[in-house]
Each structure stands twice: as C-alpha cells, then as structure tokens.
Amino acid sequence: MKKGIVTLLLVFGVLSVLPAQSLKNKTVYIAVRSTNLKSSTGFFARTTGTASYGDTFKVLQEKGKWVEVQSSSNSSLKGWVATTNVTTKRITSSSSSVSASADELALAGKGFSAEVEKEYRSAESLNYDAIDRMEVPVVSNEDVYSFLVEGHLATAEE
C-alpha cells in the first residue's frame, strides 16, 4: 500500500515538472465567432486585425495565456490572441447543402443541437427576447478601459 502511494506521488511529481505542450510553430484555428488580434498581450493593446471562426493561423510564439499568430492566407495579418480563442483541432464544414452561421457551428461544437434548443424553448419561463437584446450592444475596448480606470476597479494593462 505504502509503495503504491509513494509510486503515485513520484509519478505526479515527475509529471508536474515536465513542460506543457508548446503551440509554437503549430497550426491553430479560431474557435470563437470573432476575435481581435492585438499588438501585444494586454487586453487593451491596439487591435491589429480581426479573425473569424475557423480562420487558420500559425503560432509564432507563446507568452503566458497568449499566442502570437500569423494568418495562413494573409501573411500581413498577425497579432496576439488569447489561447482560449484558438484550438489545434481542424474546423471544417463538410456539407455545401447545409448552411450554418458561425454561432451555430460554435454552439454545435459545444453540444447544443436543434433538439436541445427545442427543449429549452419549451420552458415557458425563459425570455429569449431579453437575451437577444443583451447580445446586440458592443462596448469598445476604449470604453471598457475608461470605465475600469475611472472606477478604480483595476490597474488596467494597456
């Protein structure tokens, strides 16, 4: 019993010091509807371009939770993006007879299907109009930054 516990602790110890798998020089795909490419790793850094769901990029370097990427189809399009917005899994659309928006593809990837939507919509207490209205407004990064600074909410990083 003691040998098993010691062995288990040693395995976890060795695994914890191994480096995480690097994304450098790998191909990644945008996994969100749309994301801004930034000039640096700060949330409020200048936007250098935008990328859409399924766009293909090569990872140039990594820095914390950010990766610097360059478009596979347009070498002048590059910038930093949060690692949560990319995936190494190829995003493809196999059928030309069925069209789906980027939103629908993203939701389908998370297990949200027409059947699940129908089940949710059958609940009378849910107000989808309110949700639709909440999705419309877009607040600029400049406005968010001003809000944080003026409200002394955080030391916002440029």
TrEMBL record:
InterPro entries: SH3-like_bac-type
Stretches assigned to the SH3b domain: 25-90
Pfam families according to UniProt: SH3_3
Official protein name in the record: SH3 domain-containing protein
Originating species: Breznakiella homolactica
Lineage: Bacteria, Pseudomonadati, Spirochaetota, Spirochaetia, Spirochaetales
